[in-house]
Amino acid sequence: MAKFLDTTGVSHHLALLIKETKDKLFLISPYLQFHQRVKDSLEYLNLQKRDIRIVYRENKLQVDESNWLEKQIGIRTSLCSTLHAKCYLNESTAIVTSMNLYAFSQQNNDEMGILVKKDEDPELYQDIFNEVQKLLTTSEEIRVSVKKVDKRIEKKSDQTVSKIVKAPRKANSKNLTTNELSSKTGLTSRKVNSWLKDNKLMYKKDDDWITTKKGKEIGGVEKSGQYGKFVVWPEEIASHIE
Hints:
About 40% of the residues lie in helices and about 25% in strands. With about 240 residues, it is of the alpha+beta class. The strands form four sheets. The protein has an eight-stranded mixed sheet with strand order 1-9-7-6-2-4-5-10, sandwiched between helices. The protein has a three-stranded antiparallel sheet with strand order 11-15-14. The protein is elongated and about 65 Å long. The chain starts with a strand and ends in an 8-residue tail after the last strand. The mean pLDDT is about 85.
């Protein structure tokens, strides 16, 4: 019989599932940010020649995550552009949950899921296993490569943020969406979003746009809309967007 898991339960049983893998491990999560304990467990399994497959959604890993994955030669990674499911599976246990394999989610979000044991509910376990196999078949297997941090870009980003913070705001200044900034700058919304991401002012989590610490410093404010969270920005930022 499947067992209900709360946030703590998902994190606890996921750690056990990874640790107790004897043969195959499947990690299905749109977004990846590994806690150090997860990295340690995966490194150990990799050394033991376990078959580890990771499927995620966007090929936009943080530099540290990319570099760590690149070193794990035996771990196979695949991209699925439509992935929204989160599922973790070894040869005896499956977890279907709302939680990404993302350190922030494990520490800050309210999550839930179900735990399925193969020996207790073989039919349900097999259904989950079959769906995972289908995802692997339709996903594009890739090889993660090492990325380097460009210190010049980071320095330029810090300088830009500093200029925006120091710039006085008009008395009647408005907060603008990225679409409104697009109209003001003449750039596409995609380019505006890219500029904001590249300068580490916001990032995307699931379908939501989230402000970073830098983003909050310059006045970025998160709002909720029909399609999830988005961020509005002081209109003065438009003169800095390139």
